[in-house]
Amino acid sequence: MEPKSIQITKRLWWGLGALLVVSFGIMLWIGKDIYQTAPPMPQQVVTQGGQVVYTRADIETGRHVWQSIGGQQNGSIWGHGALIAPDWSAEWLHREVMAMLALRARSEYGLAYDALDGSEQAKLQAEIRPEIRRNTYDPDTGSIVISDERAQAIAQVAAHYMSVFSNDPVTADLREAYALREDPVPDMEHRRMMTGFFFWASWATATNRPGDVKSYTNNFPHEPLVGNVPTASSFMWSMFSILFMIAGIALLAWHYAVYHGKEKPLVPPAQDPARAIVVTPSMRATAKYFWLVMGLFLVQILMGATTAHYQIEGQEAYGFALAEYLPYAVTRSWHTQLAILWIATAWLATGLYLGPAISGHEPKYQRLGVNFLFISLIVIVVGAFAGQWFAVMQKLGLAHNFWFGHQGWEYTDIGRFWQIYLFIGLMLWLFLVGRALWPAMRSKANESRHIAGLLFLSTVAIGLLYAAGLMWREDTHISIVTYWRFWIVHLWVEGFFEVFAVAVISFIFVKLGLVRGRSATINVLFATIVFMAGGVLGMFHHLYFAGVTTSVIALGASISALEVVPLALIGLEAHETWKSSRATPWMARYRWPIMFFLAVSFWNLVGAGLLGFLINTPLALFYMQGTNLTAAHGHTALFGVYGMLGIGLMLYCLRGLRPDVVWKEGLLRGGFWTMNIGLALMAVLTLLPMGVLQLEANLERGYWYARSAEFMNRPIIDLLVWLRVPGDTIFAVGALLVALFVARLWIAPGRERLPAAAAEAAGAE
Description:
Layout: H1 4-37, E1 44-47, E2 52-55, H2 56-68, E3 76-77, E4 80-81, H3 88-108, H4 118-133, E5 137-138, E6 143-146, H5 148-164, H6 172-177, H7 188-206, H8 232-259, H9 281-284, H10 287-313, H11 328-359, H12 366-392, H13 398-404, H14 416-442, H15 449-465, H16 478-511, H17 517-535, H18 550-560, H19 565-568, H20 570-581, H21 591-614, H22 618-624, H23 628-657, E7 661-662, H24 665-701, H25 703-706, H26 709-712, H27 715-722, H28 724-747, E8 750-751, H29 756-764
Parallel strand pairs: 1-6
Antiparallel strand pairs: 1-2, 3-4, 5-6, 7-8
Helix pairs in contact: 1-17, 2-7, 3-4, 3-5, 3-7, 5-7, 8-18, 8-22, 10-11, 10-28, 11-12, 11-14, 11-23, 12-14, 14-15, 15-16, 15-17, 16-17, 16-23, 20-21, 21-23, 21-24, 23-24, 24-27, 24-28
């Protein structure tokens, strides 16, 4: 009869497999629904008198123009994108409604709208609202039919945006407020077509679905003038999501209380077992990846500081016309892309280092593959970033933008050629890690083989899921693009990177002799199931207002609440990690990797847990999406969790790569605390208070106002932006200290005076 631990392990594997099959099956089913129910793209927008306002070609080409200048890096559509410029769909809607009210006021009362009393204004609003909300799309002809009055309003709003995206002195102040360079779209016809895309995106937000009383975007954004208020389903599923979260936390707490700590503590070994790991040529070749990590990290911080400064001067940096050479759309694109790239590079290098370390096997030509992948990463970064600059500067042309320029989709905006190249690189990484891990996964004598299997599963998922970025074409509907790109953005970050992290950290503690392989396997499998239960289907909370149906809100709210469940007990996990770090004197060698793991636990609870759930429910997201409250969650979760973890994993690998080099503890101590303090100040002094002010503005006047130049140029906002300086500076100092530490390991290394074994023996005494 099989031992009980083996039976439990098998059941957990079967449970994990069933969970993944069901979860991805539901995701594909919802995807089919999105394909069928996305807001229609009309063949033409035509007046009742027969005048063609926009054609489908106008709208689609206009979207390509918007993407080529940065897309979601210049403001946002349906709440997804940058925070400085407006949400174009929300602002167009408000401007169009106000233009119609002005025309109606002049027609009925002979006065300006602002000159009317409250009852007269309310009467006009009541007259206008049904016209805005009525769905006049005819699926037989493919036409959206509008009134002549609405066509006049559209022409006025279009003229405004054609001025904004030119070099017209009349709107120069707005370009400065939006951090747009002068004449961002030089071609006048391109500007006209782009207004067609803005109109269509706005039309979908306020037009009721056929046979329904809510719009294609579930009434997002908030606009009281046209009845864009939260739907009943947003209220209902927000309440249920909170109940699901409480129930999930209670069940997990019960499980932890019943099953945790039942095993007799393991006596740690007298000496560091990791010393026995033979560093192979391919493992040694990963060192250059960590140099690249620090280089990309420092450049990302520089781009972040530049991007933040644009909120103050708009087009300049202390008087220098920076926007003419390095526009905001470029700095923000590079800032967000570099955040993903340096963290991913740290994780890729960790996988390449740990593969041979786990199995003790160095495959043939492994070092060559590691070096080739490194060169490919550099080519992708340089090529993709250069293409984005040429695109935003309008030097590439629409014909080549999709393939080599700027796709305009936040976090997935590199050209399609570079996406394909990166996918091939990830497949090479998967191959290199997999063949190194294979002996460990096959060996029944290796008690960590299940952890190796999970590590391999996560590498497979990380590699293959990037293929979702290849599932859309240049003309694919924006709702469908949003669906596929969050397969990458969400499932990488809140799905399989979690599995990778849990498996890697568990392996480290097993290898150090601090945790039994059998118990670690069970714990890792159970944790993976818990993460995947909320992590996979939790993707749908990104799609509430992306042109999808109520089923997405119901499913997303129910499941995404479970993402918080494993984070509720993160403090207990941190305590276990801390106990392990003090289990034996030689663990002092791993103090700083473990300190960064502890920081991961803290920011997992605060950034991913508290700030994540703050904006996670449908009702909260309705008012908070695209405000600085989402930025607070994004910064504290992305760097606080995955950035800190990337640095911790890097330090563990560096301890193995440079085993006899004396570590400059002061550099790491300073870097650790300044980065954590700087990140906290960034959130507390700027992002959170700005987000709260935007939330209040949205509740009182509408989403358009919370994102408007009028609101963002207030003195209190300028003050809050300047208050980022202390946090950003302290954070940057921490990054420089860590980079200096890494550099000194090779440039000016100090050797331990005693042989390794003697030093450990002396420490043990």
